[in-house]
Amino acid sequence: MEVVSRLPWQAGVALGIVGYVGVRYALAWFLSTLGGPVGQTLGEQLGQGLSAAVAWLLLGMCWAAALISYMDGRRRTQLLETQTGLNSLSAIDWREFELLVGEAFRRQGYAVKETGLGGADGGVDLILRKDGAMTLVQCKQWRTKLVDVRVVREMYGLLGHHHADAVKIVAIGNYTDDARQFVHGKPIELIHGLTLLDMVRDAQRTLPPRYKLIQNPEPPRGLEPLCPECGRPMVQRANRKSGKTFWGCSGYPACRSTRVA
Known about the structure:
Layout: H1 2-5, H2 9-32, H3 36-81, H4 86-91, H5 94-106, E1 111-114, E2 126-130, E3 133-140, H6 149-161, E4 166-171, H7 177-182, E5 188-191, H8 193-204, E6 234-238, E7 245-249, E8 258-260
Helix pairs in contact: 2-3, 3-5, 5-8
């Protein structure tokens, strides 16, 4: 049931029907065709009710797993629908936060497994698979506390232990300078609050348009986007001619990278 409940609910319904037909009719017919007293006896026993009982049990288990899959899918969809910004991400509990992050990755084409190994204090919360590569994910529902380099080092150690290809750390808040420096040249991605909101917004676009999408938020202090060129925090500036705002690297003029606000 655990394996089937991780599949789409339609797959659980189909497996239940196939299993019922296979056990109820095909198995009894197959045993009766073996010939000899053993095959005839088994075929008669299965035809007298044993196969029916096993078939109904298999059907019930598969359909119960399909119901679990359906309810889990609705719960993840509702989590996506109700997110409006960093405040709503902080308001849900840590288990829901992991489900939400997993659903955002799932809608990017990843196969997602919730491991249950992390818990509220950290560890491997999700395992992503895509194009033959395995990625470990840790979720940090911290908004005011920066994720330090110790957390990043621990995940880097788990990279080799699990023979994974990459690591992603997802946080509502931001990361210390030491943490950002540590990941240079390593297969580790640090996802902070604004990037997470972009992921959730993209995932919301795959849902029926019956609610308002997350709009471009005004980032709280300490959640400024990071420069894609040098990794420094970006600052909000205004174009002197048009008056439109944009993000510019705080390292200007040494770094002239910009980003649309």
